[in-house]
């Protein structure tokens, strides 16, 4: 398998769920820093795509819904609470762990956060969590054998 295929094998899963990137890196026998960089690249690629297509995607999604969304669902209240309390850094911090890169970006765009702020904070926390999760998976004894 070529190295570009291995890198894509980490980037593509981390575009959907951040934790899948480090797991794919272990499976593809990449070094920890290659895995970390590809995981960050996957999340940030998703962030860039959905920042600039987010509004169109939300409008298209709403057009095909059978019923209008609940105005105050449990999840929307929780998202508003996180945003009011912690702002964009809070959403960005929780995106790799709880939200997906897609969900976190769409959530941030729904609060009308400036694209530059979204990119900055998502990049900061993609690096932070990418480093921590990748090092944890690569260096905690016995964790790789479980996976």
From TrEMBL:
Keywords: Membrane, Transmembrane, Transmembrane helix. The chain crosses the membrane at residues 7-28, 40-61, 82-106, 118-138. This is Small multi-drug export protein. It comes from Siphonobacter aquaeclarae. The lineage of its organism: Bacteria, Pseudomonadati, Bacteroidota, Cytophagia, Cytophagales.
């Amino acid at each position: 398998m070529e190295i570009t295929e291995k890198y894509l094998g980490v980037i593509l899963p981390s575009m959907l769920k951040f934790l899948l990137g480090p797991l794919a890196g272990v499976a593809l026998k990449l070094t920890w820093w290659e895995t970390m960089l590809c995981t960050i690249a996957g999340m940030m690629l998703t962030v860039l795509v959905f920042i600039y297509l987010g509004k169109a995607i939300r409008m298209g999604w709403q057009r095909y819904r059978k019923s209008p969304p609940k105005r105050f669902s449990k999840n929307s209240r929780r998202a508003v609470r996180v945003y009011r309390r912690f702002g964009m850094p809070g959403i960005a911090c929780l995106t790799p762990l709880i939200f997906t890169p897609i969900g976190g970006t769409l959530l941030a765009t729904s609060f009308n956060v400036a694209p530059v702020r979204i990119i900055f904070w998502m990049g900061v926390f993609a690096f932070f969590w990418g480093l921590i999760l990748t090092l944890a998976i690569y260096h905690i004894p016995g964790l790789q054998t479980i996976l």
